[in-house]
Amino acid sequence: MSSAGARTVVLITGANGGLGFEIAKGLFLRPHSYHILVGCRGDLRRAIDAISKLRQISPTSSSTAEPLYIDLSSDESIGAAFRHVQEKIGHVDILVNNAGADLDTAVASGHLSRREGWNRTYDTNVTGTHLFTETFAPLLLASRAKSPRLLFLTSGLSSATEHASGTSHKYALAPAGWPKPKTLWFPYRVSKSGMNMLAAEWARLLHNDGIKVFDLSPGFLNTGLGDNRATGEPRDKGVLGAIDPAIGAGFCVEVIEGVRDEQAWPIRVMRKDAVQPW
Ligand SMILES: NC(=O)c1ccc[n+]([C@@H]2O[C@H](COP(=O)([O-])OP(=O)(O)OC[C@H]3O[C@@H](n4cnc5c(N)ncnc54)[C@H](OP(=O)(O)O)[C@@H]3O)[C@@H](O)[C@H]2O)c1
């Protein structure tokens, strides 16, 4: 049996660390009672450890959590996660599409081929995120909450408008000639632009069902994103100016708690303090 009971059920993909964990932490610290499904791929002990940390940080919280194995690259895993939640709980109130991949460093270091890097980035950030959302949409529709919410986590690098005008982060004109220098943030940037369309499409699909859909750009955060986990090679976020992920998580928690509901429709890409151009 699940301990969900009357609690608001929040499913966060990739919540064993980084921003996803910080969102779970932020929810545990709130007075409202949540039941958090801590999405994790690979070794599920990482989700179990994350839940122990949540309990240590907020021992008096009325919220609860359980681990949920989800690998966005595996239809089998998405299907098994769906059946588990359907049988155990029967609905989801808030779905947070947090899991994401930035493999650009792994490609630049030669650990992944360029094709593998592009395909795996897209598989997680676009294809897997869409198939996961499609699979779980009936559970959001089964929510009895006043406003079920669906969140997508996009990137400050994903704005086609800013990129085309040369005002995007990490924008630099390439020198004339060939070959061009290796450009980081390229597959990641493109995949997150694709995700923006995905979010817009889900907003359109679910608008008349009363489900609020958000596309959030949480800022440049000091997490494991972009590090080459296979070689242990970190991206130097200190030098690049990444901020505490708890700041981005605070923004996501506001959205989960309905503080930003009036900004849900028509959908826009939301930064904490501004609208990010498409
Ligand atoms: N960090 C930033 O500056 C920043 C800025 C804007 C947006 N975002 C977005 O915020 C979200 C969270 O990123 P983060 O910064 O917290 O990165 P992170 O620390 O690397 O966490 C990403 C999470 O996604 C999981 N994941 C990766 N591929 C997956 C897959 N195929 N299936 C299931 N889970 C998978 C990872 O699992 P493993 O632990 O197994 O790798 C990890 O739990 C991402 O969507 C990212 O694009 C981040």
Write down the CATH class: Alpha Beta
- Shape descriptor reads globular
Q: Which homologous superfamily in CATH is the superfamily?
A: NAD(P)-binding Rossmann-like Domain
From the alpha-carbon coordinates, what is the Rg to the nearest angstrom? Answer: 18 Å
Bound molecules: NADP nicotinamide-adenine-dinucleotide phosphate
Low-confidence stretches: none
Number of helices: 9
Count of distinct strands: 8
Order of helices and strands: EHEHEHEHHEHHEHHEE
State the CATH architecture: 3-Layer(aba) Sandwich
Describe the structure.
This protein has one domain: Rossmann fold. Helix 1 (18-28) crosses helix 9 and helix 5 runs parallel beside helix 7. The termini are far apart. The model has no long low-confidence stretch (mean pLDDT 94). It has 278 residues and is of the alpha/beta class. It contains nine helices and eight strands. Bound molecules: NADP nicotinamide-adenine-dinucleotide phosphate. Residues 13-14, 16-20, 41-42, 70-73, 98-101, 124, 128, 153, 155, 218, 220-221, 223-225, 242 line the site of NADP nicotinamide-adenine-dinucleotide phosphate.
